[in-house]
Amino acid sequence: MEHDKDSARGLAQLEGYLLWNAEVEDARRRAGRFTDQLPWLTRAQREDVERVYTADRVASCRDSLIRISERAAELRGEYSARYRLLRKRCLAAVVLAIGAASGTCAALTLLTR
């Protein structure tokens, strides 16, 4: 069981790593396309603009991922609380139904004697 959890955690980390690297590579490609539109830049200027553009895009993505992660945690907590409440209500309804059925059976048994 612990081995399965470790494997799942490792796969999730690997997936996160690959997704993040893809995002960084996308930022680099976008930076290159951006500087392609500025043909008057020198090579050094182009590299600087690409570096700044990439860093800005990566920071923006990181901020978005943090906000999404925090919201996902909030939703997980909200839905867990709702699920617990629903489970308690269902259990109470089942107990009441069993109690009512048992009471009805007992009353019928007493009445038919």
Mind explaining what this structure looks like?
- The chain has two helices and no strands.
- Helices cover 92% and strands 0% of the residues.
- It has one domain (2-111).
- Helix 1 (2-36) runs antiparallel to helix 2.
- The chain is rod-shaped and about 105 Å long.
- It has 113 residues and is an all-alpha fold.
- The protein has helices at 2-36, 43-111.
Keyword list:
single chain; mainly alpha; 2 helices
Strand content: under 5%
Share of helical residues: over 70%
**Rg for CA atoms:** 30 Å
H-E order: HH
Assembly state here? single chain
Structural class: mainly alpha
User: Count the strands?
Assistant: 0
Shape: rod-shaped
Number of domains: 1
* Count of separate DSSP helical elements: 2
**Major pleated sheet:** none
End-to-end C-alpha gap: 56 Å
